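Lecture 7 notes: from sequence to structure.

We start with a single chain of 183 residues. Read the sequence below before looking at the structure.
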Amino acid sequence: MPAENLLAIDNGTQSVRALLFDPRGNLLAKQRVPIQAYYSNAPGLAEQDPQVFWDAVCLACQGLWQQPGVERASIAAVALTTQRSTLINVDRAGKPLRPAIHWLDQRRTEGLLPVGGLWGLAFALAGASETVAYLQAEAEANWIRANQPEIWAKTYKYLLLSGYLTLKLTGRFVDSVGAQVAY
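Now the structure, written as tokens:
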């Protein structure tokens, strides 16, 4: 069987779906695996063991391979999409250093210094200083840096879930431009 089909992996908030499409876009097979809910050790926190996401991707694909007529050798390409803003700190080997911070997380970092220099002046002139301060406080990276400096010091890459799963699939620290968010 020639490799011409597309494997689409969709890691959402509640489940991972593996879908196999032919070159004309017809759905050939699908498999859905529920994801264990995130946990919270304190009010406003939402975290998850990154292995939970990877295990669900593996189970979804394994379930797909078990379906009649599905041949792994028929796959020409893989497309990956994930929930946005779920973040994972990894070391140089790609090993997670802490639980993933889930997109539902509401932690904030207080007491950050305002942006200074030319950027600070530009934000002030644009009337955006308050917005920038709000976004700084909302940034999970700032919370980790302030509250878990030992983790931040060991962090080689700070990945979106899409980057983490791409690393697991390919062994490379790469991600799709389409998976990036700018806020």
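The chain has a mean pLDDT of 95. Keep this in mind for problem set 3.
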